[in-house]
Structures are given as C-alpha cells and as structure tokens.
Amino acid sequence: MSIFHRRKKTYRFSDEVMSKDAIISLVFGIPAFVCEIGSGIYSIIKRGEIVEQIGAILLASGIMALTAFIFSLISFGDTECGIMGKRGAFILSIVDIALLVLMYFMGS
Fold it and tell me: What is the pLDDT of residues 47-74, one digit of tens each?
C-alpha cells in the first residue's frame, strides 16, 4: 500500500428519524430567527427610528421563539428518534430567545 493511497469519496446518509416535536420547533424557530435578523437590519438601516410594526413583528417572533422552546423540550422525551434534530431545535430556540433579550436591553 502506498503512502498516497486515496480514499474513495462516499456519502453517508443517515436513516435517523426526526422527532415530530423537533420539526414543529424548527417550523416556529426558523421564521422567528429570520424576523429578528430582519428587524435588526431594518433598525440599523433606519438608525434606530423604527415603526410600530417592527415591535409587533418582534412580539410575534417572541411568541414563536417561546413555542419553539417548549416543543424542543417536549421533543427530548421522545426516545425513538435521533438526537441531532432535537439538539438543533433546542439550540435555535435558545438563540432566538437570547437574541430577543439582547435586542430588548439594547433598545432600552
């Protein structure tokens, strides 16, 4: 065997089943994250002079983030499904909530 032995590139696909609660958490967490980032960018562009609708969007994203957090916690109770989706949903919901708290304290 030579030192320049090449490994074949193979793809490994997981047959891991994702928890339904983790999917619901991601469905709520991803739009919440997009709304928070979009609101932050809009606030930077307008130099802090934002309209009332942005507050309503952030309130809705806060509700979605809390819902995502609750469903991500529920998904950890499902033992038949893989852990990667559960962890991803949990981390995204924590990032959503932390970003909202950070935006709140920066605004006050």
Answer: 877 778 888 899 999 999 999 999 999 9
